[in-house]
């Protein structure tokens, strides 16, 4: 536990307001604990929710331990459990809930837990700083940059909260610590105050005079500004030194002062008695003109029944959609064609070039007599990767356009013909008889694709007929040269 070097002076005040007929706010101020709770629910008795929350949390107004923040979080969950018990015993109260903003003072700092739109402020050296963030629709719009702070104050849904202690949904409070200095003033308040007063005005009223006078001034200013809600403030001032032994008694205000959650009568069925119903005003009728605006702030619904059946139904629908989608995808895939290799040959496939375990996604549509190894390297790479075609005809065109890699032709060196020197002064009288040329030994000719017989051939080119001599005429006999005259 932290050694105390500072202590709190405190005050609290709550007013039902000039519009509402009952006070659904609850407040608590003590030497170690400050709490504000704004009940939500209208005819569902928000005063019961707020008083139950304060009654559960006020037990923390003792010298705190080193784990005060965790204890505060656990106690807010206990308030949730208590409210669940009340609603289970009295179903007429279903829909009730409350905001909670609580702070434990450990002698040097506040340990704060916050759910809803009640607020915490710190006044230091005349400057007012907000400590909490509203769990509201308009605050989410402000955070997203869709509206400004000023627009949020007049937004038609400014009172709609997104989180509360309701006995249905597990609360998820914001938890944080705030270091304090001597002379600081702290204020917790319901939205009946913060919703109508500007920060500058609250700072001025909070900083002037004793705490009791500041509390009165704040409540009066909120009512004069036109607040249509209950107005509750819980104030504290940080003072030097440990608290004196004669510390003032804790201040309990609003619905918590009467603890209405403790005074619920029961008939044999466990429901509220007729007297309780009359006291709650549950017979106000269903006229929408008489609908309490508080009933629209936060309306949690109990967990849906037969949730497992709904989940199974949703899963069945999802599986059906997946099966239908997979069938449509497979049907589409079987209308596709592509050119690829199969065992070293260029083959036209029907389907898609995808391997799915247990599913046949393609089959051979046509084989060709073109080998992948005979293709130019670029086309060979394309074939191995698979070339998509728009149909069988397009696939055949792709095969015909593939380029064959033909080797360069080898030209044999010309044969040397021996010549005889003439003697000086002699005249040749007869034709020199050529010396027979030895028949060359045949050499192995490398195998080349048939299409390569024609220069620039492609996979669909027909090879030329070998053995034809350019320029020769069939049936022509070569002429033997005669004697030189």
What would you note in describing this structure?
- By secondary structure, this protein is α+β, with helices and mostly antiparallel strands.
- The chain has two domains: 6-296, Phosphatase 2c, domain 1 (4-Layer Sandwich); 334-400, no CATH class.
- Helices cover 27% and strands 20% of the residues.
- It has helices spanning 46-57, 68-89, 137-143, 149-153, 191-194, 199-207, 211-224, 255-258, 274-280, 307-333, 377-385, 392-400; strands at residues 6-15, 25-29, 33-40, 97-98, 100-105, 109-115, 119-124, 127-130, 174-179, 185-189, 231-240, 251-254, 337-342, 345-351, 362-371, 387-389.
- Strands 2, 3, 4, 5, 6, 9 and 12 form a seven-stranded antiparallel sheet that branches. A five-stranded antiparallel sheet has the order 1-11-10-7-8.
- Helix 1 (46-57) packs antiparallel against helix 2 and helix 6 (199-207) packs antiparallel against helix 7.
- The protein starts with 5 loop residues before the first strand and ends in an 85-residue tail after the last helix.
- Residues 265-274, 276-289, 425-431 and 461-485 have low confidence and may be disordered.
Q: Topology of this structure?
A:
Layout: E1 6-15, E2 25-29, E3 33-40, H1 46-57, H2 68-89, E4 97-98, E5 100-105, E6 109-115, E7 119-124, E8 127-130, H3 137-143, H4 149-153, E9 174-179, E10 185-189, H5 191-194, H6 199-207, H7 211-224, E11 231-240, E12 251-254, H8 255-258, H9 274-280, H10 307-333, E13 337-342, E14 345-351, E15 362-371, H11 377-385, E16 387-389, H12 392-400
Antiparallel strand pairs: 1-11, 2-3, 2-12, 3-4, 3-5, 5-6, 6-9, 7-8, 7-10, 10-11, 13-14, 13-16, 14-15
């Amino acid at each position: 536990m932290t050694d105390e070097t500072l202590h709190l002076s405190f005050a609290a005040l709550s007013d039902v307001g000039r519009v509402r007929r009952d006070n659904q706010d609850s407040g608590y101020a003590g030497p170690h604990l400050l709490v504000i709770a704004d009940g939500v629910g209208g005819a569902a008795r928000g005063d019961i929710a707020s008083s139950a929350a304060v009654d559960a949390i006020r037990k923390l107004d003792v010298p705190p331990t080193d784990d005060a923040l965790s204890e505060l979080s656990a106690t807010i969950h206990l308030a949730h459990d208590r409210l669940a018990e009340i609603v289970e015993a009295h179903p007429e109260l279903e829909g009730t809930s409350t905001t909670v903003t609580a702070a434990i003072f450990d002698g040097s700092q506040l340990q704060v837990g916050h759910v809803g739109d009640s607020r915490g402020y710190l006044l230091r050296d005349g400057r007012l700083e907000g400590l909490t963030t509203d769990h509201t629709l308009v605050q989410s719009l402000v955070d997203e940059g869709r509206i400004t702070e000023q627009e949020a104050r007049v937004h038609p849904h400014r009172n709609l909260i997104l989180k509360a202690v309701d006995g249905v949904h597990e609360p998820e409070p914001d938890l944080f610590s705030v270091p304090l200095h001597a002379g600081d003033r702290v204020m917790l308040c319901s939205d009946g105050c913060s919703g109508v007063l500007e920060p500058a005005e609250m700072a001025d009223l909070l900083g002037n005079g004793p705490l009791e006078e500041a509390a009165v001034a704040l409540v009066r200013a909120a009512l004069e500004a036109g607040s249509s809600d209950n107005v509750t403030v819980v104030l504290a001032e940080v003072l030097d030194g440990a608290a004196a032994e004669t510390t003032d008694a804790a201040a309990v205000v609003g619905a918590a002062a009467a603890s209405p959650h403790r005074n619920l009568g029961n008939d044999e069925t466990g429901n509220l008695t007729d007297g309780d119903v009359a006291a709650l005003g549950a017979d106000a009728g269903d006229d929408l003109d008489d609908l309490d605006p508080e009933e629209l702030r936060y309306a949690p619904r109990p967990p849906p029944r037969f949730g497992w059946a709904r989940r199974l139904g949703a899963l069945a629908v999802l599986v059906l959609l997946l099966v239908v989608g997979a069938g449509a995808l497979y049907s589409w895939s079987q209308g596709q064609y592509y050119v690829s290799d199969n065992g070293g040959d260029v083959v036209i496939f029907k389907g898609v070039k995808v391997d799915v375990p247990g599913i046949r996604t393609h089959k051979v549509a046509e084989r060709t007599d073109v080998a992948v190894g005979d293709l130019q390297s670029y086309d060979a790479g394309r074939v191995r990767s698979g070339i998509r075609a728009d149909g069988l005809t397009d696939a055949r065109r792709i095969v015909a356009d593939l380029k064959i890699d033909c080797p360069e032709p080898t030209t044999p060196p010309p044969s040397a013909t021996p010549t005889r020197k003439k003697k000086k002064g002699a005249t040749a009288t007869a034709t020199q008889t050529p010396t027979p040329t030895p028949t060359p030994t045949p050499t192995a000719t490398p195998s080349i694709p048939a299409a390569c017989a024609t220069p620039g051939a492609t996979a669909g080119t027909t090879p030329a007929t070998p053995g034809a001599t350019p320029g020769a005429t069939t049936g022509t006999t070569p002429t033997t040269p005669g004697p030189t005259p």
